[in-house]
Amino acid sequence: xxxxxxxxxxxxxxxxxxxxxxxxxxxxxxxxxxxxxxxxxxxxxxxxxxxxxxxxxxxxxxxxxxxxxxxxxxxxxxxxxxxxxxxxxxxxxxxxxxxxxxxxxxxxxxxxxxxxxxxxxxxxxxxxxxxxxxxxxxxxxx
Length: 142
Description:
Layout: H1 11-20, E1 21-22, E2 41-45, E3 50-56, E4 65-70, E5 73-78, E6 100-106, E7 110-118, E8 121-128
């Protein structure tokens, strides 16, 4: 006789999954989980159809950041321009300032509405827009 062993998902594992799959609260079926922890970021759910990704981009200017959508992939890149004028000698460097690329897989019907940099944070607003033809509807009985 074999014993069945139950496996639970701890909060840290769930956070890793949730961070990679914006808008997949109901699905969790995409194997592409390719995220790192840099730069630090939050994924915020305001409602069943409104989300935001907040990315810490302190030290990057707007022109050094790109937000791109390719199929179901949201890609955020930060590439700092280095010139002789901005080269500094640091006595202590506690802030990371390396280039980055962060990718999130978007669920079906997720649309990136806009993005802005405010107070050192890149805020990307995302909305789930389900086509009218796929929404539940009442059929009139004659």
